[in-house]
């Protein structure tokens, strides 16, 4: 029996391997983004908040060389994923330019400063908390339905790709924000992590109820190793141990929750992206990835350039490509490329249960794609864009190639009923931290 299963696994892997160098043509899919500053591409520009990246030198390496609201010197993670799936970058949902056909590309609902909990990031005042982000997504569907009709809208949403990034702020800008914070007095760290995971599960279940069926869920990075924490809590340039412990507790429990949720649904709806491991790779051995430092931010002030955000008066490095961190908290564009490279084609050390290239190949092979975008319903639209996908197969772990020491190359730029079953009936998933 074991031999039979092994033979079947080998056969399936070989079938996929035949497709490895085949270029598949498929209809470009909509892309939705939820989360915090790691994936916000400008929503906070439209809000009266201090959590903003709308001034030089943010955006210095973006094609326009202007600040866009991204907490990056250039492209962020959603931009690079959009490029990989053959789409233009999604616009912020609050952008006045997100109208007409641009709505069919998708939308970015993320807002810098938010967390899983509603009391995270209170110091930033007016930000789009995750519950409101999902309300905006419902509103988005209504707007799209007015353009292409409810049936096509449902298909667009069901067969879209989604990215959600939450969790880091719940530690940095909540539990550890000040000594003896309210949450640290309420919970010991292990209990707080369990609470966060239970609340995050409600968020993911809600996304499922809203129709999303391919959702990339990132964990946190190594929270204690960012320049801000090296400056404030680290000793002798070493990562801050308490925040490292928080990440070490949170990320495995997040993946276990994802596995449990997928098992209950009966499908791999949620895909775990272990961005902590990618960060550890280039933080522990920056030279291997072309960085001169993984401790000092390119832009900032104070020790490790880790105090405050990047401003026109900050220290600014001349070559952003040799710095792993752009500012006190956020990776540089080059580091983002390494993260997305592993999202696209990383082994199970980085993506579970499969990477994005495998998802795209499987979806194309099973014709699980959105219908062709209409050319005239009710207004004339442009010819639908098409996408070429290079299949990079993720074989079963026992059959995949061993992890090599070679540095990864950069990617090219170019059910309500089921919700009830998950224990989240109308309103039952919304506690005081999720309303």
Automatic annotation (TrEMBL):
GO terms for biological process: lipid catabolic process. Residues 1-28 form the signal peptide. The keyword Hydrolase applies. GO terms for molecular function: hydrolase activity, acting on ester bonds. The keyword Hydrolase applies. InterPro entries: GDSL, GDSL_Est/Lipase, SGNH_hydro_sf, SGNH_plant_lipase-like. Pfam families: Lipase_GDSL (PF00657). Keywords: Hydrolase, Lipid degradation, Lipid metabolism, Signal. Belongs to the 'GDSL' lipolytic enzyme family. This is Uncharacterized protein. It comes from Lactuca virosa. The lineage of its organism: Eukaryota, Viridiplantae, Streptophyta, Embryophyta, Tracheophyta.
